[in-house]
Design a protein that fits this description.
The protein is mostly helical. It folds into three domains: 37 residues; 96 residues; 112 residues, no CATH class. Helix content is 54%, strand content 7%. Helix 1 packs antiparallel against helix 2 and helix 7 packs across helix 12.
């Protein structure tokens, strides 16, 4: 029996007190519903976790499966292996800022538009809206200042000089250095292959792997000069942060493509 049928039964039976009480409950409940619609839009009651982003995409279920399959190897995922469009996929990076920056950078590389939805707000993201914030981990004021201060011709000369060498794992030493600091965490990717082979011959694999990065660099003049030169060009050396900016700038210059 619906609540309106129950109210009608009370009226027919002449039980005015019960009818008035039920009518009052109906009015109060409806008022609450209307008030909630006006005063509490989605996101106002419970905040979304920090580092929550909304990825603009169509065919949500299909995209979700594709992103789920490629998430562990997103840095090597091809843009053709996605499906950009109109709807959204919500992602949250519990690994913190480092994981968030890595994921957002590569989601953008794949062609997705990513919106910040952390905190008290609607989880829907409209990339065409001026009010919705599009996330770009490279667009902070400090990063922009660094980019503007860098001599682009010097950066290109640095790339041309060191990309001719091979790293321990890559044909392009510059690419190996970028991967080492921004993705793999394997610093030997940033070492010129012949120099690192000489270190291994002298100390053995286990000893070489356990040695401090700065200690190893002192024995490898090409690898050390590459890091020293990029430090001068960028005006600082902050490891991953510096190489993320270098990676972004080299792509802007058309020297690196993924």
């Amino acid at each position: 029996m619906s609540i309106l049928d129950e109210l009608l039964d009370h009226l027919v039976a002449g039980d005015e007190d019960k009818a008035k009480q039920l009518f009052h409950e109906i009015v109060v409940n409806q008022s609450k519903i209307e008030w909630n619609k006006k005063q509490l839009p989605e996101g106002d009651l419970i905040p979304l976790p920090q580092n929550s982003v909304s990825v603009d995409a169509d065919a949500t279920d299909y995209d979700f499966m594709r992103l789920g399959r490629n998430m562990a190897n997103i840095a090597t995922t091809e843009p053709s292996d996605n499906n950009m469009g109109d709807q959204d996929i919500m992602l949250n990076f519990f690994g913190g800022d480092k994981e968030a920056k890595h994921m957002i950078k590569n989601l953008k590389r794949l062609g997705y538009k990513v919106g910040d939805i952390s905190g008290y707000q609607d989880h829907n993201f409209d990339p065409d809206s001026e009010e919705d914030k599009i996330v770009d981990p490279e667009d902070g004021d400090e990063v922009k200042e660094i980019k503007e201060s860098v001599d682009k011709s010097a950066l290109k000369a640095w790339y041309d000089k060191y990309s001719k060498y091979q790293s321990n794992n890559y044909d392009n030493l510059v690419f190996g250095m970028i991967k080492a600091w921004t993705d793999t965490g394997i610093l030997s990717d940033a070492y010129e292959e012949n120099e690192y082979a000489a270190v291994i011959d002298k100390f053995g694999d286990d000893k070489a792997d356990s040695m401090d990065h700065d200690q190893v660099l002192k024995m490898m003049p090409i690898s050390k000069a590459m890091q020293d030169d990029i430090t001068k060009i960028m005006g600082e050396w902050q490891g991953e942060e510096t190489m993320n900016i270098v990676d972004n700038m080299l792509q802007d210059l058309g020297l690196l493509e993924y």
